Description:
Blueprint: E1 5-11, H1 14-23, E2 27-29, E3 37-41, E4 46-52, H2 53-57, E5 74-78, H3 82-94, E6 104-105, E7 109-115, E8 121-127
Parallel strand pairs: 1-4, 5-8
Antiparallel strand pairs: 2-3, 3-4, 6-7, 7-8
Amino acid sequence: MPKQIFVNLPVNDLNRSVDFFTKLGYAFNPDFTDENATCMVISDTIFVMLLTETFFKGFIKNEICDTKKYTESITCLSAESREEIDELVQKAKDAGATIPNEKQDHGWMYGHGFQDLDGHYWEFSFMDFGAMPQ
Length: 134
């Protein structure tokens, strides 16, 4: 069985977060969804658990990061093309995300991202290994 990853993120309003990520094209696994959490499916092996802040606090001893002041992490996902990245970032912006940084174009590597409604930073990257400098 291949390794899987389950990224766990606290959210202020679960329904609002589900609506936001649905607008970006993501689906949710109903087997792992209730009033406290939902499982967003990124791929066959990548999942994001969106947990209400109250439920999330049950798993930690310290405070939840205030993403208005601090960046807790950058979740970076690969993309099939530059166009896919631009479309996804535009959908996120249209759905209420903020765009804190400009696109990064290094020729063979391209990236852009957004902060979701709860301030979690998402980055998307496309790499053309055939054009990578030697």
